[in-house]
Amino acid sequence: MKGIFSFSREKTTLIFKAPALYIMTLMPDVIFRRWMSRYDGVVLIYQMGKVASSTIYASLKQDPRLLVLHFHRMPGPNRESTNKRLGLTFRLRTLLHDLQGTTGYRLMRRFPEKTFLISLVRDPFSRNISGYFQNLWRHGADGNVTASEDHVQDVIRSIVTDYDHDVPLRWFEDEFRPATGIDVYDVPFDAFVKAGLSRDTKYPLLILRTDLADKTKLTLLRTFLNRPDLTLQQSNTGETKFYADLYRAVKSEFKYPAEYVDQALGSKLMQHFFTRDERRELGLKYGASESSPGDAE
After folding, report:
1. Three-state SS annotation for 30-53
2. Whole-number Å distance between alpha carbons of 165 and 150
3. Residue boundaries of the structural domains of the chain
4. Phi-psi domain of 194 (left: phi exceeds 0; alpha: psi -120 through 50; beta: other)
5. Where does the pLDDT of residue 292 fall: very low under 50, low under 70, confident under 90, or very high at 90 and above?
6. Of the four listed, 250, 253, 260, 290, which is most buried by Cβ atoms within 10 Å?
7. pTM of the predicted model, to two decimals?
8. What digits encode the pLDDT tens for the residues 134-151?
9. CA-closest candidate to residue 83, choices 69, 102, 68
């Protein structure tokens, strides 16, 4: 259980903020709406893990007129099944973030007219490698050791065999749609622009690719939230963490089994959010078979 109670600055803030926000959502309507009158909007950054959302969160929370929450899971069957599957240690590590998810869910339901949803998409191949490193403790790997060839190959084998690679392929269907009532695959998304914005959904929704240029990302966020003075602040990249050397070495050598690459390239996620050329390029990079569906339109 090492690391469960090691508090980063963000986690320390959550210790005080998350319970207070949750309590406010339980208040009678007159008190709740008076409290909410200080905010122009509730921004819920609701996305799967390891899709570079920390930068957007760090940027938006600087605005005192926006109530910004950042989480991966809302209450529902997906969170319950994940907690059951991964056990007590996982639940303790994610307790504060899940409380944010519960608070976001209650805010969304009680104040829909002020709610804005932001979600992000990353290719599942690099996302899963990053997700493995974020949870090294769960897999018994040591990110502090020298990135020798033997250790790199051990980690690559562990990623292939120990990690649930289907999570990003299912996340929008298993997690996002039941909680919000929005099927993102019905929302127009321009894979060439790497963004989709809709105000016709149940809640206004902005979906961004993580590899979208910061300048374009900033323009879309300013438009979506009517915040012309918004600036971006970089945060939380795997390249700067304690496991950075090992992470870079694994990324440079990693290949997936061809059957997984083919499955991912043919998924709704890849077909909706990535162009045919991008799917082909990712297939070549990560090990697709010659008959991969990555070329399909």
Report:
1. HHHHHHHCCCCEEEEEECCCCCCC
2. 23
3. 9-123+168-239
4. left
5. low
6. 250
7. 0.89
8. 888 676 666 566 678 888
9. 102
